[in-house]
Amino acid sequence: KIHAIYWAAAICSTTFLPDGVASCFFNQLTVTLVGALYPIYRSTKAVCTPDGEDDKEWLQFWTVGGVLFMLAGWVSDAIQTDRAHDIWLGYLLFAFFWLYFP
Question: What is the pTM of this model?
Fold first, then answer.
């Protein structure tokens, strides 16, 4: 149930956000920072702990995250309008946040 509420809020906020605000928050730099910097930090911490469960969680993140990064490159090349590109990057950003907290 919480996942459905999260995605409904993500879709509404991404789709109905004004263009100027969307272009500030939903850009390639933001997606890269959210999709890579925090996970690198958390993965490094997970490797340093004796528990193997957190290592598996972050390995799963990097597997799915890698697929998302590859898909992002293909979709970004195919999108023609700036507004659609901002919406796509917004969905991608929310997807990375969702992967953090399953």
Answer: 0.76
Give CA separation, 20 vs 3, 35, 55, 96, in Å.
Answer: 28, 22, 39, 22
Over the range 81-97, which residues count as b (16 or more CB within 10 Å of their CB) and which as e?
A: eeeebbbbbbbbbbbbe
Is 62 within 8 Å of 96 (Cβ atoms)?
Answer: no
- Rounded CA-CA distance 47/77 in Å is 35
Using an 8 Å Cβ cutoff, are 75 and 34 in contact?
no
pLDDT in tens, 68-88: 888 888 888 888 888 888 888
